[in-house]
Amino acid sequence: MNEILEPGMLVRHPGAPEWGVGQVQSRIGDRITVNFANAGKQVVDGRNVSLELVNNYS
Which Pfam families match (predicted)? Predict the structure, then answer.
């Protein structure tokens, strides 16, 4: 699923729900940089984590 991610998309980390919703900043290969509401900027290894797309966030 990570291969469809583009900057600006909203995601959740399935292993860290306490991080809240994050906005994708960049995706270079398997390295995805996401700015999470409660955890700040994190670099996620897309080989190990499949981020969940958030469709309706308010």
Answer: DUF3553 (PF12073)
In a domain, 31, yes or no: yes
DSSP 2-58: GGG--TT-EEE-TT-GGG--EEEEEEETTEEEEEETTTEEEEEETTT--PEEP-S--
* The pairing of beta strand 22-28 with beta strand 40-45: unpaired
Structural domain boundaries, residue 20: 2-53
Query: Over the stretch 25-47, which tens digit does the pLDDT of each residue have?
Result: 999 999 999 999 999 999 999 99
N-to-C CA span, the chain: 23
